[in-house]
Each structure stands twice: as C-alpha cells, then as structure tokens.
Amino acid sequence: MYKTLLLFLLISAISYSQHGIDVLDYNMTIAVNDSTDNIVVEEIITLKKKTNSKNINLDLISKNNDGFGMAVLSVTNNNEQLTFNHSGSILNISNLNYNQDEKFTLTIIYSGIPKDGLVIGKNKYGNRTFFGDNWPNRAQHWIASNDHPSDKATVSFAVIAPEKYKVIANGTFVREEKINDHRKLTFYKSKVELPTKVMVIGIAEFHTSPLESKFNFPIESWVYMEDKINGVNDMSVALDPLTFFISEIGDYPYTKLTNVQSTTRYGGMENASCIFYDENAITGKNTMENLIAHEIAHQWFGNSVSEKDWKHIWLSEGFATYFTNLHIEQKYGRMKMNEQLIKDRDKIIQFENKVQLPVVDTLSTNLIHLLNPNSYQKGSWFLHMLRNKIGKENFRIGIKNFYTEYKFNNATTSDFIAMMSEVSKQDLSMFSNQWLKQSTMPELEVQITKKRKKILYTITNTSELNYEFPLEISIVTNGKPNLKIIQFNEQVKSYTFKFHKEEDAILKLDPNVNLLFRETQKISKEKKQ
Fold it and tell me: At 387, which helix (H) or strand (E)?
C-alpha cells in the first residue's frame, strides 16, 4: 500500500485485538442504493470457538449519535434467535452451545451508514461510487468480523445495486442477474482465505478492458468512463512486474488480477485480486509503473503470506517495496535500482531524525503510525542487505521457500529469518536483530585531515549501538580505482587511510549502494608545529 498524508485519527479508537475465534467463511449479501448511503447486510458467518466460552465477540461498529454505524436487527443460529449485545465496536453474542473447535454458522442482519471502511460518495467527476477500504482494521465499519490479519477466511459477496453500476470484488466472478427494472445482483466468491484488511467490493460506472497475456487467469483494467483511454494506457504496464514476480516468488495466488481506479483513502491498496488505485494516479503519462508493481507484489506478501500481527507489517510493506526495486533492477538495470535505493535511504534518515523506532515495532499502538519509512524503506533495505550477505541465489531460493511454506497463511519475522538461515546455512540472528530491532543505523564520520600534500581519511562508526557490517570503499589513486572492503564490528570502529598526494586521492563510501548508513564529513588542516 502507498500511504497518503491523510491519517485517520478514528483508527486509534477501534479495537484491534483478536477474539478467541477462528472465522472460516464470510457470506455477504449487501444492498446499496442511490437515494441514501444506508446499506442493508445479511451476513452468514461460519466459525469455530478457540475456547469453551459460550459467548463470542465480533468487531462491528455500532450506530452512534452522529447517525453513522450499524444497527443489528437479528442474530440467528439454525433459525433460532440468539441473545446479543451491540455496543461501541463489539457485537457480543451469548449462549452458544458449541464446543471448542466445533464449526457453526450465524446469520446476522444489520443496516446503517458506514462512517468508514465502505467509502460512499462521489468521484472526481461527480459520479457516485462505493468502495471497500478496510486497511488496517476498518472492515468492522461494515462487516461483522474478526478484524485482524491473523484470522483468514474465505469470502463471497452478493451485491445488490442499481443496474447502471458494475461491481468488482475479491475472487472469481460467479454470475450477474437482473432483479427488476432498476436493480441487479452481482456475485463473486473467493475460495482462497483472505485477511479482512483486503476483503472489498467496488461499485461504480466502470469501463473495463482486458490485458492479453500468456497466463490462465484474466488481467483487467477497470477505470471510470471519463478516464477510459488514459486509465487503460497507464495500467497496461502491469504485465511486466507480474511476470517477474511469478518467476521470482511463485505462482500467482488468485483467480484474477484487476487493477481498479477508485475513490478511496490511499494512493494504492492491495486488495486481494482487485487492487484499488487513487483516481488521481491516472494521468495518461505512464507514471504508475512503480505503484502498480508495489501493489502487485502485495498479492504474494501481505495478502497470501500475511503478517501474524501488526508489528510484523514490514513482511508486507518492506517486501512490496523491495520487490518493486528488484523489478526496476530486472527491467532497467542496477543503476536505476541504486537511484531508488538512495532515495529510500534518504527517507529513512529523515524519518530517523524525527522518530527513532525499530522496524519490528512493539511500541506503537496507533496502527496508522506503522505506515512509515521503517516498514517500507527500512524493511526493503534489510532485504537488500540480506541479499548481499547470503548471495542472490540463496536469497531467491529462500524467498521461494518462505512463500511456499506460508502461502495463504500467516508468518512472523522469526519465521522468515529461520527460513533464510536454513537456506543460507548462516546464523542470521545478530544480523536481523541489529537491523530490525534496533532503532537507528550506523553513523559513519569521515574525518579528512590535510597536511601539506598528504591527506588522511579516518572513517569512524560513531553510533552508540553495536553494529557489525562490511563497508565497501572505492579508492582512486593515480587515476586507478580500487575497491576495498573493511569490516566494522564492536571491537573495530575506526579505519584510517593515508595518501601521499592529495590530488590523487579520491575516496567514496559504499559505491555500489549496499549499506544502510548515514555519513558526515569533517575537514581539518593540521597546525604547523
């Protein structure tokens, strides 16, 4: 996901704990209309309890004094009415006489105006649209759910909408049928388990266009009618990153790939099999390639392999960021990738100047705060340094094995490190801890001391935290470049290079862009004795 400057204070007030249940399937029938923003939902939810308690909780925002939220009309099990209490963001259902791990089904009927999660409004052309926008835990505004990435489930959407609209949703298109002269029902079903953060519907007056490919699943662009030329043109770049990611990670995990112009909160949102892009990203100037690559990479990392808890979000955002960079390298060459890595490093430094937190962040309680350069760029940089440390082939094998092991499941940082350690036959615990669990980066001070025609370069790691890392240095003497690698560690934090002719000495740190660090320089002249 590409974040925008619009941060939602609302999120910090919403529960994001798990509820001791395992949801297996959401079967949603949703009716929308043009006369009001009120939606009517019949949800059939299949689940198991993880405890012996007779009560369960689901996440669902209740109706507030401002008129937003859902009002639950009934909860039934096998056609019997159940006792429930709906307050705040919790729907509590009691007297469920089922054993732990025993499967059962609830039918919940509710209606209301969602304040968030399902965004109902007008697009930039003044036309009415409806778009799911659940990340991170905003599904509970319109879906009674266990709104946490660790609880994945299959989902189907039956959408009743005015006939003029086209409907997109996760999974496979099943059918469309006319209800009456003014309304129709569109049905999609995902047999693949998804986290709620990427379960969505999109309803608008779309122009649709297929993208021809060798793959056995449809690839389409869905754009507003007014943008049908520019939109189809801008989204036509999807095939290259898709092809590359399949070769580097594994088979595409879903039955379709639809790139959708939307009116939602983010620049891009990786909803499973139907990616939503901000309506203004379409310009007709072919500027969407990196954005599209990022969101397509999420189909593997974030959607199929999901973080087990929010502190591991870099397994989603860092992976999507780095695989976008790898796509740049594969298509445009290493120099282009290096340019992006340098930009990413600058973003990390700027963020660190303001806030010092580790990539695996156990402190932040507002989930939106996790969308920062640590999760994106620093997570990406960790993968870049890991690739250099264990070698490209080991990295490629490790990524494939990690994906295969946790496909359609959840993973932690430890799971990933264990897999890469196994493949590379290296102990990566210290390496991963220093880059993912420490809150800063190495600070390299270059002290340049000039005395007559002689010059000394002293490189010192001034960071207060312990880091072990190799530093590549390009040294040019007498017009000839030489690459030297020096190893910094807890015992050795400083190196000095001496040159006899100042005009022949050129020294550059990290010429191949392989290390995350910040650099300062000090230049001085020795005083005459």
Answer: helix 379-390
Q: Could you read off the pLDDT of 319-339 as tens digits, one per residue?
A: 999 999 999 999 999 999 999
Question: Any bridge partners for residue 166, and if so which?
Answer: 204
Query: Is 461 within 8 Å of 509 (Cβ atoms)?
Result: no
Can you tell me the distance from the alpha carbon of 515 to that of 513, in angstroms, rounded to the nearest whole number? 6
pLDDT tens for 223-279 read 999 999 999 999 999 999 999 999 999 999 999 999 999 999 889 999 999 999 999
Task: Tell the residue number behind the tokens 């009927």, with chain if given.
Answer: 109
DSSP letter for each residue of 144-204: -B--STT--EEEEEEEEEETT-EEEESSEEEEEEE-SSSEEEEEEEEEEEE-GGG--EEEE
Q: In 413-512, which residue ranges form alpha helices assigned H by DSSP? A: 413-424, 429-436
CB atoms closer than 10 angstroms to residue 207 = 18
Q: Which domains does the chain have, with CATH numbers?
A: 9-299 (2.60.40.1730), 307-436 (1.10.390.10), 443-525 (2.60.40.1840)
Classify burial at 475, counting beta carbons within 10 Å of its beta carbon; exposed 0-12, middle 13-18, buried 19 or more: middle
